[in-house]
Amino acid sequence: MAIINEVTCARCDRKYSGVRSRCPYCGARRIGRGKYSEDSDNAKGKMLICVLIIGVFAVASGILLFSTPNEANAGSSDNPAIHDPIDDEPDEPSLVVDTPPPQETPEPTPVVQQEVLSVQIQYEGRPLRWENEFSLQKGRTLDITAKVEPVTLEADVTWEGTNEEVFEFTNVPGVANAVRVHGIEVGTARIIARAGDKEHVVTVRITN
What is the b/e burial string over 6-38, where b = at least 16 CB atoms within 10 angstroms of the residue's CB? Predict the structure, then answer.
């Protein structure tokens, strides 16, 4: 079955290709479409070939239409050379805060409470001639001090007199734990020096 139709020359009745405008045998010009031979067979052959070509193109188009997106997606996921732009973004550096180690609070040093061991009334920095008494003439004065043991203990000393009509006492300026005794009237009375829970009692005799 020929795809290209043949025509019959009107002059020499020979057949030649329908693409020619003149007969190659006698040179007669083809008038119009010429005199075609086997028109029915050629027309059927052309129609069949066209249908086959259209069917092939339709099938090929369908295959390409349904297979191309899947292959593109598969290629994008399997190909290591293709990267997701989101994955290429650098990770934000994590903020690291240096937490200082907890400081240990030192335990307070226990304060040792010192106790007064003794209180002793003295005269001019030395013990009294008689341990628990001394004499003083009426109208005279005498400075006495209280020595507290231990000496490192800063204890407050308080003084007390038992009879203000016999003698009186006042603090000595600039001297710690010292008083000045002044004889007023002949007689006997006691003077007491206290520090903490300790005390020293001395008898004071006022004479003429």
Answer: bbbbeeeeebbebeeeebeeeeeebeeebeeee
Q: What is the pLDDT of residues 94-119, one digit of tens each?
A: 666 778 788 888 877 765 567 888 99
Highest mean pLDDT among 43-47, 105-109, 197-201: 197-201
Q: How does pLDDT run across 147-161, given as a tens digit for each residue? A: 999 988 888 899 999
Q: Which residues contact 9 (CB under 8 A, 6 or more apart)?
A: 15, 16, 23, 25, 26, 28, 30, 34, 35
CA dihedral 157, 158, 162, 168 (to 10 degrees): 90
What domains can you pick out in the chain, each with its CATH number? 6-75 (no CATH), 118-207 (2.60.40.1080)
Write the burial class of residue 181 (CB in 10 Å: 0-12 exposed, 13-18 middle, 19+ buried): buried
DSSP state of 22: B
Which is nearest to 25 in space by CA: 37, 42, 7, 4? 7
Q: Which two tokens stand for residue 41?
A: 């067979």
